[in-house]
Specification:
Blueprint (H helix, E strand, L loop, with lengths): L2 E5 L1 H8 L5 H12 L3 E6 H28 L2 E4 L3 H8 L6 H12 L4 E3 L3 H6 L6 E2 L1 H8 L1
């Protein structure tokens, strides 16, 4: 069975905006494009990515980029009861809690993010790796 990963918004933004951690994000996305892993995001991650990328590149380029992402990345939703569990969790960052618990609900294997606090708050059922850590672990 293929590895299933959740991509946090910071990974897509690093890649799309050619930020400092672009190369690490690119390596993870190469695994996705080459079907070595299955990647998932929530609609919230899509919204966040759209917002920041469109500020830099405008709507047309942003739409094309998002269409390109969605050729290889699936969108998953959060059920009501999982949202409540996330909001009642020990994760203080609400957005992170919602993303993380959605990934748990969908039985994903890894959560890829550069968010160090989320990494500290994670539980063994769903480890949080930076792109660099994931590539070291995966390869």
């Amino acid at each position: 069975m293929a590895v299933k990963i959740f991509l946090d918004a910071n990974i897509l933004l690093d890649y799309a905006l050619n930020r400092e951690h672009y190369t690490e994000a690119e390596k993870v996305l190469d695994l996705v494009v080459n079907k070595k892993v299955h990647a998932f995001i929530t609609s919230s991650v899509l919204h966040i990515t759209c917002y920041w990328v469109s500020k830099v590149y405008g709507n047309i380029k942003t739409k094309n980029l998002l269409i390109s992402f969605l050729a290889d990345i699936s969108i998953i939703d959060i059920p009501h009861e999982i949202a409540l569990a996330a909001l009642n969790s020990r994760i203080d960052d609400i957005e992170d809690a919602l993303q993380y618990y959605t990934a748990i609900h969908h039985k994903l294997d890894y959560f890829i993010s550069r968010d160090k606090q989320l990494q500290k708050d994670s539980i063994p059922i769903l480890p949080v790796f930076t792109p660099h850590e994931f590539m070291r672990y995966f390869l």
